[in-house]
Amino acid sequence: MVFLAAAAASYLTLGRIIPKLVNAGMVGKDMHKAGLPEKPGMGGIAIVVGFVGATIVGLMLHAFFGLAFNLAAVLAALLTVSIVAIIGIFDDVFDMAQSTKALLPLAAAVPLVAVAMMGGPNPIAIPFVGIIDFGLLYPLLLIPLAVAVCSNLTNMLAGWNGSEAGMGVVIFATLALVAFVHAQTEMAILCVAMLGALLGFLPYNWFPARVFIDDVGTLSIGAALAAAVIVSEYKSAGAILVIPYVIDFFLKAANGFPKTFSLLGEDGKLHAPKGKTRGLGDLILNVTGGLTERNLTLALIGIECVFALIVLALYLK
Fold it and tell me: Does residue 294 belong to any structural domain of this protein?
């Protein structure tokens, strides 16, 4: 029920708001298409609507049908993702400074910090290492960092039709499976809600996209990922799933965080400008000699699938 509510709300919302976004002038150029056609942006609002609406359905199942879970944890996660979504909307509309956008999610983590402080010790199980109790460092440092880092990482590895939502589908499907197997109801509700919202969004965003996800969507995906693992016992699963984003971050950092896009060649394929590896997308393009935008998106999703299989191998024993 949570999944269906998320998918339906996301899909139907997007169908309604696309004309309104165009009329409001919320459009951007599709930089990887010939002629740079304009498409409506801020489509990620529909993902947030689907996620929030489906999570509310989960709360109703708890209140009226006895679905057992930690209500405070789910409410805190819902509030954190909603705050990050508002940050994304402000950034899409007013184009905030990068430093501001990077730091604001720290404040959005406060609800999750409050729940963690009330819940006592929060040991983290790390594969091949064991269980580590970080004490007060966990709620006061690690939780805010997780929300801020995940939000910004998923925002940075973006720009190709369907890539953000497609990779998100792999992430949340993987975590949902882990949650169901290990009876992590809080994580299951959040992951199923975001999974449904992303799948409802993808038909409009897959190549050739009819709408862009923009920061409201990418930031919310990262916040939901962080929140889902924070309220679970499988926090390290999230760390594994963001490895492609971490690789992308370090490649971008080494090149001064460039803002230029891939180049569309006469062969109809995308290529890295001047052959430089300025991010994970460029790395794939340089290794392959160039790919169409659709195939680059599929390559990124495939890389995420590799880390999803690692998570499943570790946690579904």
Answer: no
